[in-house]
Design a protein that fits this description.
five-stranded parallel beta sheet; 13 strands; methyltransferase (chains A, B); five-stranded mixed beta sheet; Cobalt-precorrin-4 Transmethylase, domain 1; cobalamin biosynthesis (chains A, B); homodimer; 24% strand; Methyltransferase, Cobalt-precorrin-4 Transmethylase, Domain 2; alpha/beta; elongated
């Protein structure tokens, strides 16, 4: 049995009851090191297996091996495991092996939604979610999607906005969006949303790259109606029209 | 004090610990009738105010009046209050009145993510979220966004896909997406995701309108890589390349 468990920002407050139960009642917890550390208060007698970035396939194979040995596995993933999380590859590996191991998915709060709740209500209307990581996606596909996000005047949530290996992608994203959006479009950036070391910035599309951004940041670019008032970033749904 | 509380699909299992606490510790619970009914087990001594669809502005004004009278209000919203939920207009009304009432937002599991966890892992890559409701959005804007969703080969999550007043919008959406996506693109449709009366359908873009769809349905259209195997709908992130 493999439970794919979304842990949201990480602490129990922001996790669902069923996700917490699935972790508590597992024999083994498997996950990326950072996500395991965030849920330390939930770890008691369970066995723990973790590894690092780019080891996702190995991690999933390990989880499957534990499950085949009769153990109840909690494969944990920050945010929602189904949104850029481990949920996809874990299920692909079970399907490839034609294993009859049962897999259950426990949804959670993805980082864009945790960040939005901190900023105000920036994503109340139509939105797109794009990752700038080119590890698994061709940069030309990423560019095409940024253009489509601009064309559709979508609220744009940018995952994995900046890493050491690709520091300039975020300015590329800004430049593409500037082809369609006003330079004063509000942008909210939340680093470590709903974690102890949370940082919040509200800026504009033009100036967004002046704010410190890293892989723990969520960048939310507004649509043509988004405004900032009293430190809150709001995209109207249209009730006032 | 107004707590904007996301209740996800509705039952406690899928709610965050902090959301449940905010409801339990409120003096008054305010919300749309259906969302209030779903959280009945959490209602004990709290006062309750509910009303119907299209009464959102009145509901928010009522919540603000309760808060001004010194009560702790839980304004509840199904899914995530910040994703097509009451979170936006509630904050707009507080800002308009220049009230110094404190507002806190409790994020939750939006219906696309609840549905995705039921279907497998359909939204693991870049995605768009579009509502087909034209109550608050011009139909031409909706069409433009559907074209952009197709152009960008995004996974496309359709909120409010069909109501009695606009039964044909879902076939319009299908037809626009068919200009860009293969007719055999997998489509997952979940009605009442993670509620007692859940219904799950996996079909294709071409045939999606043959499935019963209503306002309680979430429609998830895959991207060019999405596949169906053993009843699971999966969009690969690319780890296998």
């Amino acid at each position: 049995m493999i439970n794919i468990v979304s842990t949201g920002p990480g602490q129990q407050d922001c996790m669902s009851y069923e996700a917490v139960e699935a972790i508590k009642q597992s024999d083994v917890i498997v996950g990326y090191k950072k996500y395991i550390e965030l849920i330390t208060p939930l770890i008691h007698e369970q066995e723990v297996f973790y590894n690092g970035m780019k080891k996702e396939v190995d991690r999933c194979k390990k989880a499957l091996a534990f499950a085949k040995a009769g153990k109840t596995v909690a494969m944990v993933s920050g945010g929602d495991a189904g949104i850029y999380g481990i949920g996809g590859i874990m299920q692909e590996i079970v399907l490839e092996e034609q294993s009859d191991i049962e897999v259950r998915c426990y949804p959670g709060i993805t980082s864009a939604h945790a960040a939005a709740a901190v900023l105000g209500a920036p994503i109340v209307h139509d939105s797109v979610y794009i990752s700038l990581s080119d590890l698994l996606t061709d940069i030309e596909v990423i560019k095409k999607r940024l253009h489509a996000a601009g064309m559709g005047d979508f609220i744009t949530c940018i995952y994995n906005p900046k890493s050491k290996g690709r520091p300039h992608y975020i300015s590329m994203a800004r430049d593409i969006l500037l082809e369609y959006k006003d330079s004063q479009t509000p942008v909210g950036i939340v680093k470590n949303a709903r974690r102890d070391n949370q940082e919040v910035y509200i800026t504009t599309l033009q100036d967004m790259c002046d704010v410190p951004i890293d892989m723990s940041s969520m960048v939310i670019v507004g649509n043509g109606d988004t405004y900032v008032k009293n430190g809150k970033m709001i995209t109207p749904r249209g009730y006032r029209r």
